[in-house]
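P.,

For your records, the input lines for the assembly:
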Amino acid sequence: MEPGFRLLVIDLGASSASTQVVPPSYVEHYLGGVGLVVRLLWDYCPPGADPLGPDNPLVFATGAMAGTLVPTSSKHAVAAKSPLTGFVGDSLSGGPWSLAFRRTGYSAIVVQGMAPTPTYVFIDDDTVHFRPATHLWGRGSYETEQLIRKELGDSAVRVSSIGPAGENKVRYACIGNDGTRQAGRTGLGAVMGSKRLKAIAVRGTRAVQVANHDRLVQVSIDLLKRGQGPATEKYRILGTVGNVLSLNRLGALPTNNFQRSTFPGAEAVSGEYLYQRYFRNTSACPACPIACQHNYRVTEGEYQGTRAQLDYESLFALGPLNGIASLPPILRAAQLCDELGLDTISTGVALAWAAECYQRGVLDEVDRGALHPAFGDYEALLRMLPRIATRSGLGDLLAEGVKRASASVGQGSEHWAMHAKGLELPGYEPRTLKTLALGLATGTRGGCHNRSAAYDVDMSGTVDRFRGEVGRGPLAAETEDLAATLDSLILCKFIRRCFDDLYAESARLFSLTTGLNSDAKELRRAGQRVVNLKKAFNIREGWTHQDDTLPPRLFSDPLPDGVGQGVSLGREELELMIADYYQARGWTAQGLIPEKKLRELGMGDIAAQLREVHDGHRRHNL
Amino acid sequence: MAIAAITCNPALCTGCQVCEFACALAKAKSFDLEIARIRTARPEPDQAVSIACRLCPSPPCVASCPRDALSQDPAKGIILLNKARCSGCGWCIEACEFGAIAMDPSTKSVVICDLCPDLPKPRCLELCPQQALSLSSPAQTAGRNRDRAARRELASP
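Structure tokens returned:
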């Protein structure tokens, strides 16, 4: 491998680029992927930066193993200060872009500043071109990709781009690549749009070098074989959409904006029915034996011609959460979201919030054609999507995300604004999955199932999932550490069950690739470092204990039906778990990180900078 | 034995590029996908297919070479390269309608699938996680397609 990770620093204001080397300690400490993008964000984002201003950097990085045969390693992470939460925003995407980018010889990009006019960047191995994108502005993500490939005359060029949603700074716009892959959450597409950066095109032709080639290949081939076995069956056959019926049975399928946790139309939108009726084929990220991306086509009826990929989260958000029990319009909505560059989860939650506002008579303004979201009205939902992306009419309000939208509408609509720290909640009912509730409340990027897989604890059958209690803190922290480790290595979570000893075996993969010493213990520490670093970033940006909470609905509205009937989330119950979690992390009762803890993790530099910011605040306040 | 080329079933291909990795490993013990003799094309985000030399019975690449560097093995149908004659002009690359010929920048000559003669079967076939690749003669491919067509026909009311 090249000496260290090469970092490309792009200044859009000056149309200039420079190559730097990522300090080796960053790779040792934070591995790559999410760990690395957040570490670079810490360096390049000045405290208090406006998320949609020129100072907020947009950071991309692959993991150390990208470009090799290590299964599921070719993914990339993106980070910026989130325009949705004001805290750390980080997201992962997969697909051929990650591989092509790694093969340019770079492992990371920091994009700074703002272009004077719409621009796209083309990284052609070592050479960086700044090209006008005025003709691409307003176009959908995939259309943009195709036009750029045509313009550059090479189908090997891979493109990561924003759609109209990112251009219009919809606070939950995503960054899409290869047509269907999205760095979906926390509004990173809006950051890209604020920089007038339409796309990053890459052409990489270099071979990635690793420390121990032969051993790495051997282990990779073994893992490829394991990845075709029972450990990945869930993701290979039905895909995550199989969750619809199981979560419905568990009383954990958020329906009608979390008004209930079972959906009468669940059968009609089940993964099983989807497979039987609309399944076409699957697609994989590079070097992945699982191929989790399920592609569907609608070949008849009103939505004939629809081609979309769908996973559980998109299905829940555009379906049950909005009371929609018909698959063709859900598939059409998913396709539209990909084209427009909208995060399906946040979009679905925003529309469900609006539907409830109308249901309760809180909102009465309607869009052209007397259009307003209503539960079960899929035509309204479909017609609202472009309005959100272009911020027209009611779409402008919804483009702000439910936290801001409910604050501006008021009239109690905060009660059903389903977010944590401003990030809209994913498709799991926190009242019947209490460990998950803890994970959602404390997560550094807000309400997210990917950075804290605490629902795994609830589903394990070893705890009472209807009750939050002491002991969940360490369990939630453990799932969070594991996610941080995998997201930084990068290895996909879907391959996690293919390992006998996940930490030890993935440490070996990391060592064989980088030549750095690593073992299970060191890798666990790296995961903890990443979680602490993200928390430190949030503290730097003004986080307080009050931010670790969940929407009022979950506390005061008991579930009306299903196995969770009558269950709500107690404020004390959540506080108890949060205190337990802080303790498990070695944080103070107020959730702050003691300097000692950071030093213990070898993060003395972060501790010192955090103190500086604190002292600055204090001086300022005096 | 009939001439059999590496054939990809697009219904099974996920675009994972493991075949490209397998080829680069077999031919260069590296992750240099630029010299892979099999390449994955992705005409649509939800469609992929891997393509290697078709072993055409009247190969345009051989006909196009101005230096007679290419010839066809009469038994196996693979395209043989006389490296000393190849100037790297790339005319064969232009002639190949399948994009199955690549330029190796390090040797400045072209590379084409040789079906891994030293291995029990081509490495890409061995590693494809979806069993999307097979060695098929035109007759075998036609037979498979006939079976499929018959199944469709019989299944329809």
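Two observations worth noting. The two ends of chain B are 40 Å apart (CA to CA). Chain B touches chain A at residues 11-12, 14-18, 21, 24-25, 29-34, 41-42, 44-48, 127, 129-130 (CB under 8 Å).

Regards
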